[in-house]
Request: fold
Amino acid sequence: MGVKTGRDLFDSAANLIIAFTPHQYTFLIKCSLGLGQQRHGEGSVANMQRGISISETFYRGPLETKAQFQKKIASLAKELAKRMEREELGGRVVCLKLKMTDFYSRAKQEKQNGYVWTYEEIKTICFRLLDQHLWPCPPIRLIRIRVSSCKNTHEIKADRRMEEFTTKLGDEEWRQQNTVELAQVGNRVRHEKALSLQVSK
Reply:
């Protein structure tokens, strides 16, 4: 391809999207824009394992009906979403754990295609886990919801913008017709990346 510099990579986007996998392509375009890793370990598996959870034990008596389960799950999902908003976190793995009165536990988790952090997203996933994997269930004394594989929401939004940007960038005709928008989107991606780095320090 005759690629020697970052600018060469950027200008060869239409060829790169054909020659490489989507993940490799996005990585190369990020590098061409100077958006590679800024610190040792950034983006590593170890750095993605942070999680956040909420649980409640029912001292006044166990929950027995599905309606009771759903009402409590909704309440916990709402509180967890508020915490995630405050801490600016989004996660890809949602786990619902139920502990029975005999202290045995059941748990099921689901990995999402994208990051989630809103009340509706968490509640919907937990209801699905309950319906498809955990119900029927004996009376329970504790419910726990955990969201893991978390990432800062500034970085998530920057990554989403980057995906939109690189998808368009692979279209040579679009590139030729939107040179001004290319520059604007590139600047916006850099700005959002800088914000995510400031928050994570």
